[in-house]
Amino acid sequence: MTKTELYIVRHGKTMFNTLQRVQGWCDTPLTKIGVERIQYLGLGLRDIDFSEAVSSDSGRAIETMRILLSEHPDGPVLPYRVDKRIREWCFGSLEGAYDAEMWGVIPRVLNFKNYDEMIDRDTTFKEICEAVYNADTANWAETYDELSTRVLNGFEDIAHRVEKNGGGKALVVSHGLTIAFLLNLVREENNVRMDLDNGSVTRLVYENGAFNCEEIGSTEYIEKGIEISKNLLS
Length: 234
Prior knowledge:
- This protein has helices at residues 15-19, 32-45, 59-71, 99-109, 115-120, 125-135, 144-164, 176-186, 220-233, and strands spanning 4-10, 50-55, 80-82, 168-174, 201-207, 210-218.
- The protein is an alpha/beta fold.
- α2 crosses α3 (59-71) and α4 crosses α6 (125-135).
- The chain is globular, with a radius of gyration of 18 Å.
- It comes from Candidatus Enterococcus lowellii.
C-alpha cells in the first residue's frame, strides 16, 4: 500500500489577516498578494501526484483551493470535497475585533498581565480555548472537547479515506490556528508559540491509525513556484 500523506496548506492571506483582525468563522477574501503567493504555491506543488483535495467550508479556504487546483495538471479531474470540521476556531463575540483586542482579553481571563506573560508561562491550547469560550458573550465559541473532537476527527477521516483507497497524497486547505492545534493533538510538545505563514505547507504521514509530522509550516513550495514562474517568463 502506498504511504498516506496529507499536505496541509494554510489559506492565502486575506483582508482581515492584513488588517490584523480576528478571523475564525467570519470570512474575508484573499488579497492580491494572497492570491499571488497561492499561485506560486500551486506551481510549486504541481509535480506532486495528489489523490484528492479537501478544504474547509470557509470562503478563503475554498478560494485558496480553487487557485491551487487551477495550477495543477490534475486539477480539473481531482476529486474535491469540502469539510466544515477543518475550519478555523470560532472566536464568538471576539470575531472581527483587532487581534490586539482579543489577545488583550484572553490573558486577563487567564489571570495574566499581558500576552507575553501568558506565552512565557507555557499556556496550553486547552486553556486558551476555555478562555475564548468564557470571554464569548454571544455563546458561539466551542468547548475544548467540541473543538478537539471535530478537528481531530476531520483530519483523521481524510487520512483514513485516502488510506482505504490505497494510500497516496491528499491536498488539504485549512487554517493557521486549526493546523497548529492539530499538531498539538498529534504531539503535545507542539505548542501555542507556533506561527504558520499563509500558504505554508505542513505535511503529515498517517500510518497505523496515527499521524507523524514530517514538515511544519514550510514555505519552500512557494519559493519553488517563484523560481518556476521566473523560468516560464524568461
